[in-house]
Amino acid sequence: MSQSIRIGLLSISDRASDGRYEDQGIPALREWLGRALVSPWEAVPRLIPDERATIERTLIELADNEGCKLILTTGGTGPSPRDVTPEATLAVGDKEMPGFGEEMRRISLNFVPTAILSRQVAVIRGQTLIVNLPGQPKSIRETLEGVRAADGSVAHVGIFAAIPYCVDLIGGPWMDTDEAVIKAFRPKSAVRPQGA
Ligand SMILES: Nc1ncnc2c1ncn2[C@@H]1O[C@H](COP(=O)(O)OP(=O)(O)OP(=O)(O)O)[C@@H](O)[C@H]1O
Ligand SMILES: Nc1nc2c(c(=O)[nH]1)N[C@H]1C(S)=C(S)[C@@H](COP(=O)(O)O)O[C@H]1N2
After folding, report:
1. What is the mean pLDDT of the chain?
2. Which terminus of the chain has fewer Cβ atoms in its 10 Å neighbourhood, N or C?
3. Given ligand 1 and candidates 136, 141, 142, 143, which is best to mutate, with the most ligand atoms within 8 Å of its CB?
4. CATH number of 5-169: 3.40.190.10, 3.40.50.300, 3.10.105.10, 3.40.980.10?
């Protein structure tokens, strides 16, 4: 049995956090991960406003104190004055992982022409991978799972395909996925550690 991975689910929204609407970010993240992951995992959810200092503090808390090896944020990636999630994420990261943002924008263009308005980034902080997803709840599935053709075959692979191997490389727990949702790609040389 694999070791359980703790996954930070960080919904960043002024209106969801002050109760003007119900947060759909955390439920959408939970729902998708619940379908995609077949190895054990535990959600560590947080709902906060679009305040840069609060975002930075919460990312640090999830990574350093809560032991989350993966953090998925949703919201605050656009061009509006209050959208500061990428700045906060870059500020707490040791290394930027530009491929995630580049690929998510490409995937999202299959769904909306405004995909290029998302400034989403990904970083490594210590042994934690942090990935920004857009705020529209439907964009969570779109970017993580990718695009399917009418016959259900995969037309554009979602970014989650690369996440288990990235977590391996930074020393996190082994993750297995349901291939009907998303096939995790690992190079043939990747060796599953004993007991994982
Ligand atoms: N947590 C959420 N729950 C439900 N819907 C959301 C959430 N976050 C965003 N949305 C929807 O997606 C849209 C785009 O998200 P964005 O992150 O740009 O929010 P926003 O317009 O800055 O407002 P807010 O921060 O108050 O959610 C929102 O206008 C809203 O319709
Ligand atoms: N997959 C996907 N990506 C998407 C969208 C979407 O609906 N689906 N919305 C776009 C829009 S309209 C905006 S403004 C940006 C930024 O969104 P955010 O501020 O909610 O993070 O994400 C873009 N990326």
Report:
1. 96
2. N
3. 136
4. 3.40.980.10
43 alpha carbon – ligand 1 mean position (Å): 21
How many Å apart are CA 64 and CA 188, to the nearest integer?
A: 31
Helices assigned H by DSSP within the chain: 14-17, 25-36, 52-60, 85-92, 98-108, 137-145, 163-169
Contacts of residue 141, Cβ cutoff 8 Å, sequence gap at least 6: 28, 32
Q: Is the ipTM of this structure higher than 0.90? A: yes
The answer to whether the predicted template modeling score (pTM) of the entire model surpasses 0.95 is yes
Task: Name which of 112, 116, 80 is nearest 101 in CA terms.
Answer: 116
